[in-house]
Design goal:
D-Maltodextrin-Binding Protein, domain 2, 2 domains, six-stranded mixed beta sheet, five-stranded mixed beta sheet, 43% helix
Length: 332
Amino acid sequence: MTTRGLIRRLLAITCALSLVGAVAGCDPTGATPLHKITLGFSAWPGWFPWQVAREQGLFAQHGVDVELKYFDNYTDSLKALASGAIDANSQTLNDTLASVSGGAKQSIVLVNDNSTGNDKIIARDGITSIAGLKGRRVAVEQGAVDHYLLLLALEQAGLTQADIQLVPMPTDAAAAAFAAGQVDAVGAFAPFTTKALERSGSRAIATSAEFPGAIPDHLVVNAGLTQSRPTDVKALVATWFDALHWIRGHRDAAIGIMAQRAGVSGDDYRTYNAGTTIFTLRQNIDAFTPGITPAHLNFQAARIVDFMLSTGMVRQRPSLDGLIDSRFLAAP
């Protein structure tokens, strides 16, 4: 083969490889390619800042390509993460522990918030306490966060699930069924609490405010992602805090974005503020630090596991190794 032929052959190979790279998402300019992460979230005030992050282009600013996937049904998002259909999800600690107990490999890398009142047990007129639920029909999404709140409240009142008539259904349907008068009480989280409270005479008879630290909400990723793509996970966490910074500086615009995603009015959305305590970076670092109070994730996780085992919500104790991963939080 002549020198000129060899050069032509090499050029052909180079062009072919460049074409393959372009199909695979490589940038011919030599820039580092963006690798897509599919991030799930659903209807909860502590997770709507992700919508702000997308609309303000904050993911791209941190060099991470994110497909933000909204789930109308929260439980569907849990299943999607557990099955590997998505890479990361916004979910509660107790639901994460239930998934891990079932064999899923997941890591908590961020505390979005603590529920401080936006998870509620709401009852019809004439029922004024949890004790009044005995023998009543109570709708709740079985195995999810407000089922856990219901069990906590029943235990505090000296009752068990056997003392009520549990009516399992998705949270949105449960809230609608209660508002329509089909059940006596419902366990729901905001924004579905707004629908439930449309029923005349209804009231919250227990809320997450009565169980401090019991319902922390997190960014949870498939454990393999933290090992194979730590830079991208760190970018997700950094994007979250940038979104919170943007919200503080553009409060009305941010409420408009989040209320639209929630399907409620701006005024309704403002009522959720006190019931969701968004965590700062400092609060995150404190929560991830091992400790012996409910403010520490390791303590809260162990306590939740004990409770879930005692009530039969899970059948085996999950390993907590690698569950709480603080590597992606930048120290202040």
